[in-house]
Amino acid sequence: MTHSRQLDLFPESQTSDSRVGKDPSMPPPVNVAAVPQRSPFRYPGGKTWFVPTFRRWMASLPRKPRVLVEPFAGGGIISLTALFEDLVDRAVMVELDEDVAAVWQTIVTGEAEWLAEQILSFPLSHETLIAALNRPAATVRERAFQTILRNRTLRGGILADGASFLKHGENGKGIASRWYPQTLARRLRDLQQIAHRIEFRCADGLTVMEEFAQHPDTVFFIDPPYTAGGKRAGKRLYRHHQIDHQRLFTICQHVAGDVLLTYDEAEEVKELARAHGFQMRLVPMKNTHHATMRELVIGRDLAWLDELPAIREERGTYHG
């Protein structure tokens, strides 16, 4: 099956005022409000902003892949987009964090409705929140509910140890500023439509990649914790942040299907990409503080992204 549709990478509603450093070679960041929100998570490092680029990649492939493997699934927006938009038949979502895993396990085992009802009926306050989180979870679905509670009331949605609760939040609403029970319930109920097409693994992402490495009908979207080159974001945001980046690139180099990676713009990452024969592009995004930044998109053939600045072979430079 051949993809023939063409999708805009950057919505026309964006203006040049938000371009990175006013660099005319860099398009404006994607407006995430224009992207369908599928995930129940408010996830640090989430890839909602990357969805239009992901669609472009899938459309560039010579045939529709049967399986998408996302070895660092987190909030899962890429896998969910692929399934809801029928870009693949099946998604293999992998996440090592047992709290995050509990949510996906609850969804794929058919208990999304239970989780939705718990969210709708919960009377959120500081007292009820602390009581709910201090109560030992006897089942996976109870752990999933506690994870959603923490994700929606901790600053930035950060689930790593040491994260603190929202104090002021949006419009001074504090812990309630990101608690949208109706919206969360709707997303969970929508996920019931595709849950049977998700294979979830609470496992090491690199090990699962190796399992599917020789499947030519499988593609890989890889968004690892950003710890290469001394970056601290991955260590601060994720409980499981230790990644063997060299091993990851070696696996990517030898998979039978196609791969697409996103990484922080670090020289160590560029060197790994060059050493393993990958191309690189810079794509603009906005962080949680609404500052415009650049991330690396890495793949085998990025001709479909020629409108984005490419990394030169010379260290640390790029051209449009």
Helices and strands in order, then pairings?
Layout: H1 51-60, E1 67-70, H2 77-84, E2 90-94, H3 98-108, H4 112-121, H5 126-134, H6 140-153, H7 181-191, E3 198-201, H8 205-212, E4 218-222, H9 233-237, H10 245-254, E5 259-264, H11 267-275, E6 279-286, E7 292-299, E8 310-311, E9 318-319
Parallel strand pairs: 1-2, 1-4, 2-3, 4-5
Antiparallel strand pairs: 5-7, 6-7, 8-9
Helix pairs in contact: 3-6, 4-6, 4-7
* Number of continuous helical runs: 11
Instruction: State the CATH class of the largest domain.
Output: Alpha Beta
Cα-atom Rg, whole angstroms?
19 Å
CATH topology of the largest domain: Rossmann fold
Distance between the termini: 32 Å
Q: Overall mean pLDDT score?
A: 81
Give, in spatial order, the strands making up the sheet with the most strands.
3-2-1-4-5-7-6
Number of domains: 2
Q: Which class of secondary structure composition applies to the elements? A: alpha/beta
What is the correct CATH architecture of the largest domain? 3-Layer(aba) Sandwich
Parts with pLDDT < 50 across at least 5 consecutive residues: 1-24, 228-238, 313-320
Strand content: 5-15%
Helix-strand topology string = HEHEHHHHHEHEHHEHEEEE
Q: State the helicity in percent bands.
A: 25-40%
* Strand runs, count: 9
Q: Shape, please?
A: globular
